[in-house]
Design brief:
The complex is a heterotrimer. Chain A contains three helices and no strands. Chain A is mainly alpha-helical. In chain A, helix 1 packs antiparallel against helix 2 and helix 2 runs antiparallel to helix 3. Chain B has one domain. The longest helix of chain B has about 35 residues. Chain C is mainly α. Chain C contains 24 helices and two strands. In chain C, helix 5 packs antiparallel against helix 12 and helix 12 runs antiparallel to helix 15. Chains in contact: A-C, B-C. Chains B and C meet through helix 2, strand 1, helix 3, helix 5 and helix 6 of B and helix 18, helix 19, helix 20 and helix 24 of C.
Chain lengths: ~100, ~575, ~575
Amino acid sequence: MSVHASWYLVLAAVLFSIGAVGLLVRRNVLVMFMCIELMLNAANLTFVTFSRALNDIGGQVAVFFVLVVAAAEVVVGLGIIVAIYRRRVGATADDAHILKG
Amino acid sequence: MGSAHAFPFLTTLVLVPAGTALVLLLLPRQLTRLVRAVALAGSIGTLGIAVATLDQFRSGFAGYQMTSVHPFVAALGISWSLGIDGISLFLVLMTAVLFPLALLGAGEQTNTKAFVVWVSLLEAGCMGSFLSLDVLLFFLFFEATLVPVYFLIGGWGHERRGYAATKFFVYTFVASAVMLVGIVALVFLHQSQTGTLTFSVQALARTHLTGAESVALFLAFTAAFAVKAPVFPFHTWSPDAYAEAPAGGSILLAGIMAKLGTYGIIRFDLGLFPHGVVVLAPLLLTLGVAGIIYGGVVAAVQRDLKRLVAYSSLAHMGFIVLGAFALTGEALSGAVLQMVNHGLYTAALFLLVAMIYRRRGTFEIRRLGGLQRKAPVMAAAFMLVMLASIGVPGLNGFVGEFLILAGTFIGHRWWAVAAMVGVVLAAVYLLWAYQQVFHGRREGDERPEQPERPFKELTVREGLVLAPLLALIVFLGVYPKPVLNRITPTVDALIAHVAAGSHTDTAPLGRPVLSSAVVRTPGSAIGLATDVQGGARVAVTPAVLDTHASAPTPVSPAPAGKGIR
Amino acid sequence: MSPLAALLSPAHLLAANGLVLPHVNYTAIMPELILLGGMLLLLGISAVSPRHLPTQVYATATAGIGIASLIASLVLWHDVQKGGPFSAVARAVDIDGFATLVLVLCSCVVILGAFFAAGFLEREQVQGVEYYALALISASGAMLMGSANDLILVFLGLEILSIPLYVMAGLDQRRAASGEAAMKYFLLGAFSSAVFVYGIALTYGATGSTNLASIGSFLAQNVVVSNGVLLGGLALLLVGFGFKVAAVPFHMWTPDVYAGSPTPAVGFMAAVAKIGAFGALLRVLFSTFPTLRTSWQPILWALAILTLLLGALVAVVQRDVKRMLAYSSINHAGFILLGVQAGTSRGAEASLYYLFVYSVLVLGTFGVVAVVGGRGDEGHGIERYRGLAHRRPLLAGSMAVLLLAQAGAPFTTGFFSKLYVIEASIAAHSYALATVAMLSAAIATFFYLRLVFAMFGERAGRQASVAVPVAPAGAGAPGGAAGQFPPVGTLPAGPAVASAAGVLTLERAAGLVDPGRAEAAAVADDDAGPVVADADLQVSPWVWVGLALCVGTTVVLGIWPSPLVDFARHATLLF
């Protein structure tokens, strides 16, 4: 039994949307961070699905690049978050209020 | 006129002031005397070149002369293209005359170096604007004049100078922004028709425009010129700017900068969009008349001498607009001449106002008064300039105004009649101002703590600044013929061009036009009457090298009392 | 290559397993390699040096590295002009006139950025190599974006560009605002990258490739009947780019990040991010999706209008100079979008030209802002600029030139950059867009002028009219007052002010006080406006060099713009 490729695409789109909405509505920086990871991985899932459907290895290779970049983003992002919240209690985006926007 | 090997008069007219500014920048600012002397030398040198240009100018020739064309930004189709004709010749001369006087009469007392640098740059910008035959080069210079004026008002102005300077800059910049879009659109249309990318006025005048395009582009161009001139109701920046500017600044603003607007109207609106001009001339005529009357009425209620002069200048600019859009040879010649006249007497008025301010520290008319007893020479000078401004025969204001009104009367009778009201108003408020300032009693005289203060007569130096202006005012009033002789061929060719372009959307230039009335006797204001009555004559245009001139001057006698309609 | 190295190289090992690695043409990526290699060298030196090296050493080295990569870029330019464009590294990198111009631009930004950073870090006594290393990485990312011929490489370039910028935004650990700026930039930046990757994935699904040229030829040869996925992918790509170039409505991060980040980093960030993102955007839209022009042009039209107007209008109400410049940079992004929207090679030229001009201007402007900000990088209110022309005439003069150029004053590069994009836009029949753009430029002049007037207009406040009639009596006499009429009357003036003016006059006459300073003091007396102590306005020679380069370029190329215009033209001839 095989699942049609479009289901994977729909799943990826749903994951991506969850990530995007989560990033916009959640205030906890770590959760926001996880939402970004969710979005990236939704993109990865799309890549793999298309790669399979098109019978082309390129999409799967792209996933590696995305993973590496995601890892790099995590390193830097967590570094920034830690640097900010070293002197604070919680990690909430609303605490960052010195700047207007 | 291949002036490739001749001395590049026009290029030096632009580069000498610019170079002076560069030299001035390198001088230490403590050496005020030297700085001032160098600036003066630069502007007098420019005047010398301008006089030489006048000498080289071939009278009775309609086209551009002494042209010099060099590639500037070839990739964008911009060229360093300068030329002079009857329309720009005397504006260039007036510019060259007014700048040294403005430098001498400015009397700014702080930061002389910066002041004279800006003035020199402004002179380069004005010269470049009047001489450019490349629309974009013109626009560059036209815009470049904003920056020095902004700094002159902002740095050396009166009380509300920040407001005035910013208002001036933003107003003019908005309008110019629209014009830039218009320029590029015109160039693009030309490019799509001919395949060449060029900003040359001569080439662009050959663009075939549909009626709507011509009107739209006319509006885009006129936006900038109307603000600069200023044409009512785009004038609101100007009384602020004129009043807040330092003495030197007001002279240059009202005397020269305003002419950039009307010069642009004549050179570019009439030259490039004949159809749009003819369609919208009634609107612009109405605005011109509105400006004359509005300026007059507002001037009449001013209690501040400098503002009064500013509004009177606004009213007089209305006459020039009227002359430009009446579309007859007389009116247009009158407008060109009046630009020069207005420059001279407005500059003189602002100079005199500044001299009074320097003595009394106020522009308020009610706090002046009775100055005639203490300074009769100054009063006489003021009287002369004021009479020129009112338009008393024998002085220069009369010649221009009369030509404009007579020319307007041919085709647009009621506008001319309405404009007459402005002449009367000018007489009313200027005479009132003169009477108050020089003969009236000063309010506050009775206060004991303000004893009768001394009021110094004109110094020799001030007299020397005023003398050339007064001489020119009288000379142009008595004997305008040599000037008109040089102006009219170009003006006639331009009127013919407008007539040719207005009839069909795609009329190629040079098509003889039979129905237009281009009627004039070169150089004679008095000869007008016979002309108007149908004694039309052929204005002989010599061999030509540019588009304006390449339109054969219409030769047919026209029904009297009818302009190009 | 020695046999041993060949044996150990991964290529050899992988080839043995049947995988063929592409041939890497190192000259094609030489500028990037120089930047990255230089960065590693700097990090290595700083790691092994026993004590902290002064920041000037690193700045010199960074400028040197920038010059080396500039030379390498110019060599590539020469090759391209002679031999035509070529693809390298398995067609992932495309070296053409366009790419080499981006390389040249990035190298210039690195050099200028190093000068301004040196002055800043020196004053703030920040030691260490981090800033320079991050700048070098970031610039190499922008270079990659400009020359990338594959969406994956565009994405990699985007991340290489962005991640160091997040860190640079947060580099100033003493100020909490800096950390916040970094976090905001990071969260929104990462969000936009995720959107961008998803866009790539969808495009890949619709066309079967991530290679820009392959996608282009695929779209040219096939009519995609149901192109929802493709259009979705394109839209997401545009969103991703929109975030990077700060196009409205994806601009929210810009004011906060610009206000919070260390000032010289802002200039660098604004320049390098726009170069990279616009470089890639132009290539993606022009060489890959020209067939979808009717789809993306309206989107860009709307983006451009919003960006132009919002940037100009919101900037008018800002009191903080850095926020104001942030909105002005949004306005500039709108202008560059004008060239992109035109969709013609003329538009590409115009955009590239604008990018060059903008980069120089924004670096210089923020260089001055960094100086005026004073120690601690906190003083960015407009009141800091009051009377600057009299305390630091050269600094104020440079700033005025840069601001007026940003406003589009004639005889500066700023004018021609605006003319160029307007021309491209009108040639593409976008009359309304061109008009809106010029109107927004006119609105923008308002806030540039406010800053200029603060520097130049506040001569001596309202006292000027009072002090002036008195001053020449004392000060003018020694000099002879060549061109001045002797003042006759004095104005009614409060005795206090009059005496103050008198004292100042005496001091001035005696040569005790330099006039500008005296006047500044007069302002301070009356307005009680904060006047920055002169000691706090030390301008490092590094900044002078950078400013001289920026202002010189702006003026010289503004009076004689042909070389740069020709450069931009040649860059896109081979596009």
